[in-house]
Amino acid sequence: MKLQFSDLLYSFSYGLDCVEGQLLPIAAGHGKRVARLCVILGRALGMEADELVEIAGLATLHDNALTEFIRVEFQDEDKEKLHFGGKKLGAHCVIGEKNLEKLPFALKHKNAVLYHHEEANGKGPFQKKAWETPLAAQLIHMADSLDTRFRLDNMDEEKYEKMCAYVQKMQDIRYSKECVEAFFEGVTLEALAGMEKAELFTVLSTEAGSGFKDYSNEEIHDFCNFWIKIIDYKSKFTRSHSLGVAALAEKMGKYYGYDEDKCTRLYLAGAVHDLGKLAVHSKILEKPDKLTDKEYRHIQTHAYQSWIMLKDIKGLEEETKWAVHHHEKLDGTGYPFGKNEDELGFEERLMACVDIYQALTEGRPYKEGFPHEKAISIMKEMVERRFIDKKITEDMEIFLAEKSA
Ligand SMILES: [Fe+2]
Ligand SMILES: [Fe+2]
Ligand SMILES: [Fe+2]
Ligand SMILES: [Fe+2]
Questions:
Q1: pLDDT digits (tens, 9 = 90+) for 173-191
Q2: Whole-number pLDDT of residue 30
Q3: Rounded to the nearest whole angstrom, what is the distance from the C-alpha of residue 26 to the centroid of ligand 1?
Q4: Looking at domain 216-404, does it have CATH number 2.60.40.1180?
């Protein structure tokens, strides 16, 4: 499958922004700002274009483990905003670094994410001094902490001067000499003008370069699994939902005799179908009581949000359609676009059936999933009401009964 790194980066950064905006006391767009500043610093250090692409990628994804970290370390504590620190801080670095190993991009800088909170004087979570950490980690650390402290998209002369004084003061304490020199070489007030939200990615993608790369099916699976972790950890109620939908969509693809490429594309659509849930507040996703109409409408926006995050990935147009239309109904009453049976192709219908079957059969912390027969009988009612496809439901009844027997 041919995809473009910069497109994927953009979609990642949008999704992660949504998570960060909810979980951290930080303004939306943090990942992109950190990436942009790292590119400015990297250029001041004389890095080549391909290295800048790497740095932009790593910086965009530096907090990729946020949702997983919170589930694992905070054991689902109900926190509006996390002011995490101390020993626990290192956990998201470890998980984040591990997740990146699986990404099929050419991210060669080992340990850049692992050590992105190390202080130059060795007082970070792993007590590494600056010279013991890779330069990419030092750059991300500097950009990350400066954005958190000074909000890089909102600079004026006065704030800029304060930031310069801070960076100078922090040499050998927070920041290495090399990073401080790069800062004063490259980070002018004018250079920060590209930090405004609207312009940011245009600048970044120009710098990060373009060009399609052909990814193998195995690489696509790894890429999907990276996303799946971030999405599924968003809610304790749906911890294996995307993984289940991806696997089931692929399994059904095999049942229909599709080749490996097509089955992988179905896996991908399943993996990202609920990507937009990153933009839905966890409090509503996890509300134990009945949702109000307003809350229900808010949850429904996830399908549209998935579309927003995926629509600009060139080469992924078909899979995006399959993924985004999983809540459309044949009678035209579904969402987000109210498509009807004339507009919904086979793969979109399949994805809708797979999503429903998976949701019905998977367990939740407070209840067991339905057995196969019960799930199919509920789906048959939906067929009667002209919501979902009759033939696919019948196929799933036979094929998945064999599998669950
Ligand atoms: Fe971090
Ligand atoms: Fe960060
Ligand atoms: Fe959904
Ligand atoms: Fe779903």
A1: 999 999 999 999 999 999 8
A2: 86
A3: 12
A4: no
